[in-house]
């Protein structure tokens, strides 16, 4: 997969990246990925020709084999590196739809309830008016899903 729109970054905008080409996307169930992402699993994709276009990630050596990149300012998980090509967090892409996973790996640590998630009740938009009113009142301070000349924006 390739294209000029392969950009992304952290939620605060301190670290941004561009990728020339994407490889295989995966869902990793290993315990280290669960802890890095604070989630049930990590969604990662191989990035070829990665350029850090604003800032650089902080790195944590999570094992004798791998290090994990994150934004030191806001904590967003960004990368995984184990001696080969860098893996980037799919959710950190401006358009994560372009980076769909195609395989699940490390099933030994897979949490037992993960497969049942699609069967959980999905609350409809009109089911909880109080929650919808709250959602409508949220003003995001996160970096937008596109490159910016500067961030944060200059005060008007």
What's the alpha carbon Rg, rounded to whole Å?
17 Å
Quote the distance from N terminus to C terminus: 39 Å
Structural class: mainly beta
Sheet with the most strands? 7 strands, mixed
Helix count equals 2
**How do the helices and strands follow one another from N- to C-terminus?**
EEEHEEEEEEEH
Share of β-strand residues: 25-35%
CATH C-level class of the domain at 7-111 is Mainly Beta
Q: Which percent range fits the helix content?
A: 10-25%
Oligomer: single chain
Q: How many individual β-strands?
A: 10
User: CATH topology of the domain at 7-111, which one?
Assistant: Metal Binding Protein, Guanine Nucleotide Exchange Factor, Chain A
- Give the name of the CATH architecture of the domain at 7-111: Beta Complex
* Low-pLDDT sequence parts: none
The side-by-side strand order for the widest beta sheet comes to 6-7-8-9-4-3-10
**Mean pLDDT reading:** 93
Shape, please? globular
């Amino acid at each position: 997969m390739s294209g000029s729109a392969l950009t992304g970054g952290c939620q605060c905008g301190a670290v941004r990246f561009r990728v020339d080409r994407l490889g295989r996307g995966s869902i990793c169930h290993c315990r280290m990925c669960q802890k890095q992402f604070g989630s049930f699993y990590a969604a990662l994709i191989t990035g070829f020709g990665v350029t850090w276009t604003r800032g650089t990630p902080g790195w944590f050596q999570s094992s004798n084999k791998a290090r994990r990149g994150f934004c030191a300012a806001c904590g967003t998980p960004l990368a995984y590196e184990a001696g080969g090509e860098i893996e980037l967090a799919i959710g950190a892409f401006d358009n994560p739809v372009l980076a769909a996973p195609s395989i699940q790996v490390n099933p030994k640590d897979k949490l037992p309830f993960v497969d049942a998630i699609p069967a959980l009740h999905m609350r409809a938009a009109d089911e909880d008016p109080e929650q919808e009113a709250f959602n409508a009142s949220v003003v995001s301070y996160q970096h937008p899903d596109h490159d910016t000349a500067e961030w944060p924006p200059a005060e008007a």
